[in-house]
Amino acid sequence: MPDTFPDLFWTSASNPASGWTPLRYTLDGAEHEFGEYTLLRERGSEGSVLQVGVWRCDKLGDTPFASEDGDETFLLLEGELLITEVASGRRHHYRAGDICTWTKGTRTVWTLTVPVRKMFVIADPAPVSP
């Protein structure tokens, strides 16, 4: 886990492999593993979901994804990717330096042609039961 102070959290996108966790999730009954992440923070000061971290992936091709934990905003740090909205079919191309945001549960397909790394924030203001 990152270094923690009472009100300050710190981590690095260059953490060693031991500091990363595989991103595993179930979507439409299918199990997926899509890159890995390191979390800087998991909860807001009032106990709500506030996940802040770095995600990286070198799995090329198409992968379905939906942020089920809350609304997500990310800054693409490295690489480029294509995100397709399942409901509308709209396609969005992102390059390093671009920022993207969408609402909780939005179904997408991510197409990677090169490895990527992003800094993300996932937030849901509803309090989480302990």
TrEMBL record:
Domain of life: Bacteria
Listed InterPro entries: RmlC-like_jellyroll, RmlC_Cupin_sf, UGlyAH_Cupin_dom
(S)-ureidoglycine aminohydrolase cupin domain boundaries: 46-120
Protein name as annotated: Cupin domain-containing protein
